[in-house]
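Note to self: keep these together.
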Amino acid sequence: MSPETDSVIATVEAEVLALPGKLPDELRTELIAFRRDIHMHPELGNREFRTTAAIKARLEQAGLEPRVLPGGTGLICDISTDGGTGAGTGDAAALPMLALRADIDALPIPDTKSVPYRSTVPDRAHACGHDVHTTVVLGAGLVLAELAREGRLPRPVRLLFQPAEEVLPGGAPDAVEAGVLDGVGRILALHCDPKVDVGRIGLRIGAITSACDRLEVSLDGAGGHTARPHLTTDLVTATAKVITEVPAVLSRRVDTRSGLAVTWGRVESGHACNVIPQHAELSGTVRCLDLPAWREAPDLVHAAVDEIATLHGAKSEINYVRGVPPVVNEESSVELLRRAMETRRGSYAVEGTEQSLGGEDFSWYLEHVPGAMARLGVRRVGDTARRDLHCGDFDVDEGAIEVGVELFTAAALLD
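Structure:
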């Protein structure tokens, strides 16, 4: 790097270090209360009206002008370099925006925790940390808006609060169609990780999640008496063969390093022990670690199901529902997150992370602009219990909120 570049980097990093060591007590307390309020009132995908209204009201209170997305839930909010809602003025205003994305929906499962902020909605829970993601982006937006008013924001920032992440293929495609990436040069996100201690983040260059699609198969054939299976399409046996042999066939048709896997979650057939049924249904997921293999997966799965079903005399009908591709983190965006965290909290606060088999619709944004997702540590230090997402007892160490706000604030100043 040139001496001039070194000087610019040193100046920006000094700016980051000059930020308060911790969030002001008042803001930290407010953000925790905000998270708990959302946690108590979870809403499913594309129904997040109360959540959207709460975010919108707080951003308007800060003097910003959020815009609700066309579906009526979710919103975006731009922060200009001069603290207004346009691009700002000067050379910095001409730079592409940095987008910070949060997902705002909950899951259709009961909250089983015994805490004062337990869900008040039956069979609904924020069991994946979206309430934390939302609060982090809101908190970062409030801090960045204040820095912009002080003339300390180097480029415009867009806050993106996206609905329906948990509903395949996710709310991201609709958000992209609505123009949320217009003017955006980079997008960042984070996701709670109960395997990482609070105060730390996990980073990975390349694929950090897997692709996830939904597969639904119907099988039909001539039924009959179980005493004479040779006169029927033995549909239960045919179904069993599809369940066991389709994954095996696929494992020999793609590179095993792609991790293409079919896992069944539901099977239904028949009503009596002595009657061979005429109809069977099964459904499951198709997951894949590799982006090129994911693009080929529908044709491969269709062919494998048809072959096995035909071999056993059954007629198959397949509904292959595209879900999400893998989240593939772009290298310079990962390095931006690394620098931001190390500048704020030191190198000890960053660790590597493995590729998850879970799906995330943040991947759709990365089909259009570079970006990266970080794993946000939410495990209480010293907690040795095995915990996971999508469980009714999922909870976080709320100190993670401040860590996330620091991470995104520093990234916005360093980018």
